[in-house]
Design goal:
By secondary structure, this protein is of the alpha/beta class. Helices cover 39% and strands 15% of the residues.
Length: 134
């Protein structure tokens, strides 16, 4: 739901967007991109959702240079799970940084307790975030 709303908002702002919801490195084509926005929740005990875990694993294994990539992170979680809170988004952030990508701005961390409308909060944040891309 958050991803759909963010894609719609980016289209309304005149941006071309490709939504990635699963597959591996060939489908994501991160080496060809200049910007990426990761919207991710956490499952289990700090794990990545099943649809993006293969991409994360392939990137960690293949270790492509992503120095051209600027990225943002929207993390969805519940702070009541203290040890694993935002585990998935934090894993993405760490891996992309290791591969040379440059995060633009702070992570948006949406706690289910404090953000009952994460889609609206993410849209407001992304409208500001895209202005920092230049």
């Amino acid at each position: 739901m958050v991803g759909d709303c963010v894609v719609d908002a980016l289209h309304e702002l005149g941006h071309e967007v490709e939504r990635y919801t699963g597959g591996g490195t060939k489908a994501a084509r991160l080496g060809e991109r200049q910007a990426a926005l990761v919207i991710c929740s956490t499952t289990g005990i700090g794990d990545l959702p099943q649809n993006v875990a293969p991409l994360h694993a392939e990137l960690a294994s293949e270790r492509p240079a992503l120095g051209q990539l600027r990225y943002g992170i929207v993390g969805l979680g519940d702070r009541n799970y203290k040890e694993s809170y935002l585990g998935g988004p934090k894993k993405w952030d760490a891996l992309l940084a290791e591969l040379g990508a440059q995060r633009v701005g702070d992570r948006l961390e949406l706690d289910a307790t404090d953000h009952p409308t994460p889609d609206l909060d993410a849209v407001a944040w992304v409208k500001q975030w895209v202005t920092t891309l230049g």
